Amino acid sequence: KQEVTQIPAALSVPEGENLVLNCSFTDSAIYNLQWFRQDPGKGLTSLLLIQSSQREQTSGRLNASLDKSSGRSTLYIAASQPGDSATYLCAVSDEGRRALTFGSGTRLQVQP
Amino acid sequence: EPEVTQTPSHQVTQMGQEVILRCVPISNHLYFYWYRQILGQKVEFLVSFYNNEISEKSEIFDDQFSVERPDGSNFTLKIRSTKLEDSAMYFCASSGGRDLAKNIQYFGAGTRLSVL
Q: What SS3 state is found at A26?
């Protein structure tokens, strides 16, 4: 059964810092990996999706990498801003499936 | 930008009552999903729906749950006899449009279900 782990559980940084969020998964036979942002009491906003055949994806200040064989992904946020404060969730879908298995998230606070 | 809409935003019900949670997926999407998030816990997959039938379901999705696409736009989750442990945020999602991002799942804002 797929398990997704995110480290750290919480992170507080000053504005302007570059930061890395980590995600690991136990079964490397994945179809894709998706990073989401969740604001308190709100839904999930998709940030990036990496197909299993890809190594990385970029969107603005965000860069996500995937090392499928080692079961790891990182989300890099450049020049963090207070508006980036949210919980970041990593989720994977296994080969042949579309259901997402989520991690517990990293709660990020960017201080002005 | 197209979005997934869910109603109501908050539903309060008595234990044992039936509830129906409603979702309008993005119009050209082909796959529909329900997830739930119990307070303080991970988001959990419940069920996916494609071509008018269930394509995957989790162990959580037992006989108390059902899904339906009653018309061309709505997608519903019914809980037949609610239990206290059904209290959670329920998210609807859709994917499978015709563009390159067809695998991205887009989530609604959620319905908070409170079972008393």
A: coil
- d(Cα A104, Cα A53) in Å, to the nearest integer? 25
| Averages of pLDDT over each 10 residues, chain A, 112 residues | 95 96 96 94 91 93 96 97 97 93 97 95
- Determine the pLDDT at residue B101: 63
CB contact under 8 A, A36 and B107: yes
Do residue B56 and residue A98 have CB atoms under 8 angstroms apart?
A: yes
Sign, CA torsion B60/B64/B70/B75: negative
Q: Name which of A31, A91, A98 is nearest B48 (Cβ-Cβ).
A: A98
Phi-psi region for residue A4, left (φ > 0), alpha (ψ -120 to 50) or beta?
A: beta
B34 to chain A, any CB pair closer than 8 A? The answer is: no
Task: Give burial (CB, 10 Å; 0-12/13-18/19+) of A16.
Answer: exposed
Q: Which residue of B has its CA nearest to A37?
A: B107
CA separation for the pair A33, B29 (Å, rounded): 19
